[in-house]
């Protein structure tokens, strides 16, 4: 799959293509529906499928300081899109100048002049251009002028965890923030993932017999609510069952919020400096401060036992 950053990266001899545009944070099941349809349409027309997305998130430019927690970094989104059959991803740097581009100018400069769109596939609520003035109706009108089709795909609706709302990144972030990683996984179609480099922490886990990977998360990452979770620590593509702690470590009066993962039944791991991922399967319990260190150790042993069972059951059902 080709990856381009900016319009100037698009090959000059690029032919016609099927395009879909959006932030696509998380590439959740609603996004997947749109992207799959774009890929299928591209195959029918015999042209490549292109996803256009933005960096940084448009809200950070339009309303500085309002950058939403991100469900997936751009490299992860690209991996997920490649799995769906996308041929190219175009990341457009979203600047103050770019934000002032009118919907009509966006169509000409991006879809017509550079990507030579033959078809554009979007969800019903797609908005674009200055002050989000463009919508799918306007896009369809432009398609008649510039010879491209516009197809609108209805999104999935969430179940009980999402209150019956349409699948969205906003809903997913809300579930993650509440610690409902199972509800988030229902929308994402996979466990919510947090990534970063393993750094040295206080090393109390090692002293207590439960050495953890202290993950320095990427900026703006959507991190689940404080608590203990079952999941996986993913290193170089290997997913190891893990007990995950999110929070400030109240037992030792910590103040810095961290994400730490203990790889269950693994010894001798040296992960410092490695980029790893943490996949969240299920919430186990909230953060707590125990009266004695022994009480903490007993609870940690119970946590690991519970996490081992939850991960084992999930892997057995897969």
Automatic annotation (TrEMBL):
<keyword id="KW-0547">Nucleotide-binding</keyword>
<dbReference type="GO" id="GO:0003919">
    <property type="term" value="F:FMN adenylyltransferase activity"/>
</dbReference>
<keyword id="KW-0548">Nucleotidyltransferase</keyword>
<comment type="function">
    <text>Catalyzes the phosphorylation of riboflavin to FMN followed by the adenylation of FMN to FAD.</text>
</comment>
<comment type="pathway">
    <text>Cofactor biosynthesis; FAD biosynthesis; FAD from FMN: step 1/1.</text>
</comment>
<dbReference type="GO" id="GO:0008531">
    <property type="term" value="F:riboflavin kinase activity"/>
</dbReference>
<feature type="domain" description="Riboflavin kinase">
    <location>
        <begin position="187"/>
        <end position="312"/>
    </location>
</feature>
<comment type="pathway">
    <text>Cofactor biosynthesis; FMN biosynthesis; FMN from riboflavin (ATP route): step 1/1.</text>
</comment>
<keyword id="KW-0288">FMN</keyword>
<dbReference type="InterPro" id="IPR015864">
    <property type="entry name" value="FAD_synthase"/>
</dbReference>
<keyword id="KW-0511">Multifunctional enzyme</keyword>
<dbReference type="InterPro" id="IPR014729">
    <property type="entry name" value="Rossmann-like_a/b/a_fold"/>
</dbReference>
<keyword id="KW-0418">Kinase</keyword>
<keyword id="KW-0274">FAD</keyword>
<comment type="similarity">
    <text>Belongs to the ribF family.</text>
</comment>
<keyword id="KW-0285">Flavoprotein</keyword>
<dbReference type="InterPro" id="IPR002606">
    <property type="entry name" value="Riboflavin_kinase_bac"/>
</dbReference>
<keyword id="KW-0808">Transferase</keyword>
<dbReference type="GO" id="GO:0005524">
    <property type="term" value="F:ATP binding"/>
</dbReference>
<dbReference type="Pfam" id="PF06574">
    <property type="entry name" value="FAD_syn"/>
</dbReference>
<protein>
    <recommendedName>
        <fullName>Riboflavin biosynthesis protein</fullName>
        <ecNumber>2.7.1.26</ecNumber>
        <ecNumber>2.7.7.2</ecNumber>
    </recommendedName>
</protein>
<dbReference type="InterPro" id="IPR015865">
    <property type="entry name" value="Riboflavin_kinase_bac/euk"/>
</dbReference>
<dbReference type="GO" id="GO:0009231">
    <property type="term" value="P:riboflavin biosynthetic process"/>
</dbReference>
<dbReference type="GO" id="GO:0006747">
    <property type="term" value="P:FAD biosynthetic process"/>
</dbReference>
<dbReference type="GO" id="GO:0009398">
    <property type="term" value="P:FMN biosynthetic process"/>
</dbReference>
<dbReference type="InterPro" id="IPR023465">
    <property type="entry name" value="Riboflavin_kinase_dom_sf"/>
</dbReference>
<dbReference type="InterPro" id="IPR023468">
    <property type="entry name" value="Riboflavin_kinase"/>
</dbReference>
<dbReference type="Pfam" id="PF01687">
    <property type="entry name" value="Flavokinase"/>
</dbReference>
<keyword id="KW-0067">ATP-binding</keyword>
